[in-house]
Design brief:
12-stranded antiparallel sheet; mainly beta; about 200 residues; about 40% strand; 2 helices
């Protein structure tokens, strides 16, 4: 009986680790998977800026419009060269929003013009997901007043001079669990000034 238990304890970690290894003959998902993931981002979210004695609220509302990219941009990065089956995948997407989408900061509404997604898919990196390396990390920017959606780096910089970035106002947050798309590590940048926010989750 003891030998059986020892065998189970030895094999179990191997089985758990294997769940997150690349499956032979199974290809990683195509660009449509990541576009669909972008479309699952919450269309309305409310935040508060934690400051003693002052109630300061920030929220956004969006309706998707045309993608800036025909398909999301994808790049695979292997740990130890191209022959290593383990890799993590970066993906990027930009989608314009329809007129009427907005960011609201303490009652002031600004046009929300586009959404930029900087994502990482770690499911093929090997090993189990951890808080530091979850299956997915989505870094999302909800950008005000950039109707070309060409940021965050200013086109032509540094030749064009001025600041390196051209997004002076946006909401930023991260998603680490795409099953619930819960915003974490939220920041508001307003006219170049940044501060952290906390989510007001009303169950939407």
């Amino acid at each position: 009986m003891k030998k059986l238990m020892l065998a189970i304890l030895f094999v179990l970690p191997l089985l758990v680790s294997a769940d997150h290894l690349p499956i032979p003959g199974k290809k990683p998902p195509g660009p449509d998977f990541y576009r669909d993931l972008t479309y699952k981002i919450r269309s309305k979210v409310e935040f508060e800026i934690p400051f003693p004695g002052v109630k300061s609220t920030v929220n956004y509302s969006l309706t998707w419009d045309t993608p800036a990219y025909e398909i999301p941009m994808i790049g695979d990065y292997h740990w130890n060269g191209d022959k290593d089956p383990h890799f993590y995948r970066m993906f990027y997407d930009r989608i314009f929003t329809k007129a009427g989408s907005y960011i609201e900061i303490n009652g002031e509404k600004l046009p929300l013009t586009c959404v930029f997604v900087d994502g990482q898919d770690n499911r093929f990196a090997g090993g189990n997901p951890t808080p530091l390396l979850p299956d997915f990390v989505l870094k999302i920017y909800f950008v005000a007043n950039d109707f070309s959606c060409q940021g965050p780096i200013k086109p032509g910089w540094p030749t064009t001079g001025g600041k390196e970035q051209n997004w002076d106002t946006y909401i930023y947050y991260e998603i680490r669990d795409p099953t619930i798309m819960l915003p974490t590590d939220a920041i508001i940048r307003y006219r170049w000034n940044e501060t952290h926010m906390v989510l007001v989750d009303r169950g939407n």
